[in-house]
Input
Amino acid sequence: MGSSNEELGDEFPKIKSAVLFLTSEVDRTAYPEKTYKFFKNLNKEVPACFLSFKNIKHNAALDIYKTPLSGGYDEEAFQLYARLSVLWFDAFLKGKKESLKNFQINDALFQDIKEQLYTEKDREHEDYPSYDSRNLE
Output
């Protein structure tokens, strides 16, 4: 759902599964504030987490094999997104609910992630938080 920010709607009300949003303030293909609108408009019953990181371009977290076509591979970004995706899948596909601690802002496991989140208060387009979540128990 990444590109065409101006044309793409901002809600999928029928989603019934857990949703993880990973974005960055420098993403000019899928604006993070538009991505946050998806988060806000999700079915309120589903588990969801929104994270906006510092300085990760749109394609930076793609694996090294796909990047020559799309540009921007960043090993650290790839490792971060891959680790978070695996933890999310562990929690919701394998039922390892302890993995959710990594997404809960008050848990010690979240501190590694928290340090990498975007911290500026002034946003280019609209205000949005660097972190938001719901139903992560």
Notes: The longest helix spans residues 75-92. The chain is about 25% helix and 10% strand.
